[in-house]
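FAQ: What does a multi-protein file look like?

Like this. Sequence, then tokens, then the next protein.
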Amino acid sequence: MTIYRTDINWIGARSNFEVETGRAKQGYNNYYLPTCPDGALNVLSYDEVTFKNLYEGIDLKWYSNEGALEYDFIVSPNTDYSQIKWEIEGAEEISIGDEGQLIITTPLGKIEEQAPIAFQGEQEVDIVKNFILSIRRLLLTRSK
């Protein structure tokens, strides 16, 4: 088995955010790795996990959609979304594709993340549409 790790570091995030889980999935997983020879046992999985107030007024929700891991930033009214900044470690290359997608290249292949989409309620709005790549750090920027 080949495993490879890529980390996301949230720059400027609050250290005292809360973690809120959704419904626990049936069963559990056990993980045995060289860094954890006794194993991490009986690890539950959840249908969603939300980091509440990761940034001031901004939650980060992770969830599964048709078998793919997705995430949403939930930005409270009158909150500055430009607080959201992250750094990716462990990638061979990070680039922005022709359609604005984020491309993370690792020794095991590429991870592609679609260009950001912003919603207000259920309606897509033309606010945030671009990733900005600056020396392995990512920011969100307004539409032009």
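And here is the next protein:
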Amino acid sequence: MARKIPIQWLKLCNYCEMRFYLNLTNNFWAGYNEETPPTNNPNQNNKQTKKQKQEKPSIEITIEDALQRTRGTDEILIGRDVHLVGEQLAGRIDQIHIEDCRIIITKNNKCSVPYPPDRIKVFAYCVMFEKKFNPNRTLYAKLRNQKNNKVIYIERYSDIWRDKVKNQIQTI
């Protein structure tokens, strides 16, 4: 059984096919220069304020149940740190807004410029979400600055982006 491709790999512009092959087959990782620390810092969990601790989810619900619950209502459900595993891809979505007529998939970005690899990455989540759940709602991809939570990019998911993501996956 083939391992899933992490969506993080789609962000790499200058990739080495041999490095990806070695990582998949031998669990080998040839690192690349990354100037910023990882997003999930375990030390940050200890520094939560009382307000952040109170913001825990009020209900735990599956994506399928959330799609059914919001159908035909004005209710908006927001999911955080949603892990998805598709046929070829696997990854973690930072935030999903599920509404009656649309779904907004949000990915936090470390910089304030929506570079093309970042856009490909967030649209890859849209591809995976569409294949897995077939929501019959309009999907939007949104990039948000991780430092100040300002929206730096939002666009409707379309066939053009689906093809771009498929081409990127095929090159890997």
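Q: Is there any per-entry metadata?
A: Some entries carry free-text notes. For the entry above: The CA atoms of residues 10 and 168 lie 7 Å apart.
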